[in-house]
Design goal:
It contains 8 helices and 2 strands. The protein is an all-alpha fold and 213 residues long.
Length: 213
Amino acid sequence: MATSSQNANHVVEMAQVMNQANQAMTHVSAAIPQEAKNYMKTAKEKILDSDKLRSFSVFFGIGEDGAYSVALNPTVLCPRLKHNILFFYLNYILLAAIVFVITLLATMLNPMTLVILAVLAAAWFVVIRSTSEGDVKIACISISRKTASLIMMIISGIVGFFMVKDIFFITIGSSAGLALIHAFFRDASKHRLDETSSNAAADAAIPLEQEMP
């Protein structure tokens, strides 16, 4: 009975902490002006517009004549890089997400990562088990379950940061390199920047000169 009562008290304490965190987030959200919220929402919808995700055939230039070429002249290369970045930016974001998932899976399957996760899981089990009947004493210090859980959360956060840090840098470096190579060689000058539909983009690969009256 005593153990059940302590577990119930711990659940109540954790619920109170979560409630306080939710209230803090609500206060922060309420402090942001509505104009700023509307601007951020509009910018998010505009940037992440799925219609600007170019189709597979457009991204790789399948079926196009001269889809790839080497341009060393800065007067040709700079406009090409600018055009490709603005035209394919959502594809590059998707590419970064794919690289992130692959890197994350490779990291999770690493034996060292599995050992670290197992040690963390064992540490959490020991903390929960040792504080199930109340405070645990280490030397002359008495530590409650709430304090022990907080310490474990900090330790887990630090370990997670160092694990994700490498994934982050690998994702940024690899995706940026692949995107730069694509932007360097891909000649997408036949496609307009204002093409909003990926399906229409696949059918609208027409030189701009032919659209002029």
